[in-house]
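Internal ticket - ligand job 580, magnesium ion:
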Amino acid sequence: MIELTGVPVSPGIAIGKAFLFLEDEDVSIPNYYIRTADVDSEWDRFRTAIGKARGEITELRDRARSEMGPTHSAIFDAHLLMLEDPELMEGLESSLRESLRNIEWIVFQREQELIEQLSRVQDPYIQDRVADIRDVTKRILNHLMFRERFTLSDLEDEIVLVAHNLLPSDIIAMNKRAVKALVLDGGGKTSHAAILARAFEIPAVLGVAGATRNVRNGDGVIVDGRKGRVVVEPDESTLIRYEQVRSRDVEREKALLATEVLPVRTKDGRSILVKANIEIPEEVDTVRRHGADGVGLFRSEFLFLQPGRIPSEEEQYRAYRSVLKSMEGRPVTIRTLDLGGDKALPELSGREEKNPLLGWRAIRLCLSRDDLFLTQLRAILKASVEGDARIMFPMISVPEELDQALALLERAKAECRAAGYAFREDIPVGIMIEVPSAALVADILAKKSAFFSIGTNDLIQYTLAVDRGNEKVAYLHQPFHPAVLRLIKATIEAGRAAGISVGMCGEMASDPYAALVLLGLGLDEFSMSSVSIPEIKRLLRGADSGEAASLAREVLAMESAAEIERYLRERIDPEAGVFR
Ligand code: PEP
Ligand code: MG
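stdout (structure tokens):
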């Protein structure tokens, strides 16, 4: 038995037999000289292969569009564009004519050059583009070499899929009923695989170093998508333990979902909202099924992280409108673009930054690219008549940023008015508190904000100077550090004094131990991945806010995260939802 760990990207426990899906990189590509007289027929052979590839990709695109909507089908639009890229085609043709080598070899060489260039860039977005290039090339080579390509749609038995990395088309095509869990060597939270696994509710652990080396086809595997663990060939007692946890989870989930529609009132009658964080509009079904009181964070930048292009105003409008309509009047907070940092978009960021997390990110990027920002604001405003839309600005660090963002919002409103579009004039506008400077001047920011949402993922990162994506220093990403708790307390108090609501949309809100402390500090709203909602709702329903307030006072008097965590684990029983 061995245990591997990785990034938990989609929760749930799955137990099954491993199916190793290895890219057939070792298939040799023929390499031979051709006669000058054969160059034209060689090129024709290539054009025929391109035609077939185009037909297949178009089919995949249409399928993705009908199953999951335009956000995902855009991946295949980008693949089609690649097939039609005149520069690429001219380059291939001139290499063919100059080198007089067979076309398979020319295509393969060009792929290797492109991958080599892109692999030097340490950026998850670029790595996804590498996957796109491999995907398209493989398809063309398969046609040139008359190879039948195995696709994951051929899967019949239930399996745990283990691969180095999955191409977007592999995931779209795969038989989702057969895939009980996903384990990949590569990938992280923002990769296509992670987004799609969550959208399909398939437990997944990504970034598992050595998964394909340590797992053999047919091995028994346990995947714990909540904790990021993969157990290979588990012994009897581990298997029994996970089976028990899984059936408990299933039972608990059923019981929790049965109470899904009930709003949260604590034992002493305080109303608390528990909302969902989403990345793509297609997640809304899951959001509703888990009983969310609204969408507390729509990470709109994910609309931009699809390959190929920046979505137009119309496309954005349609995405916001569809979420608002599906939420049927429940509030939907659309966070304006949080690009940059670990979500870089090369089309926008251009030159690489030395310290992207401290650099041209989120509201900073939007304020200097007001064309982009105004387009998004108009799209949100136009969609605002379809439901209860709210706007939220990310990463405010100085009050002037809020002033400038509000001024641009007024300009977007004026533009909508001039164009005759209906929109909600009094659309609430709030900000994320995710930089310590903002927490410390929350009283000033509260005067111009309709609400606050505390983004602890970044707040912890910037308070403890710890890159949230770097596993070497992950031990410092401490939600219970007294400094973090004090900043949260200061933010909630400033919000209360100004009479505005204060929520939290960072991961900390879904931690049962933290949730009771946050309740005690006076938090009004919790927002998290849909799958965590039922459990947190149940916990809050069983809590008394007076008791939670004394718990918060106790932990705020403590001196370290370790001491606080130890104490909370002694005092709280997350299963029972009450203090011991
Ligand atoms: C956060 O920083 O806590 C947050 C919710 O935003 P994101 O995780 O998208 O940076
Ligand atoms: Mg953030």
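Auto-summary: The radius of gyration is 25 Å. Residues 394, 434, 455, 457-458 surround magnesium ion (ligand 2) (CB under 6 Å).
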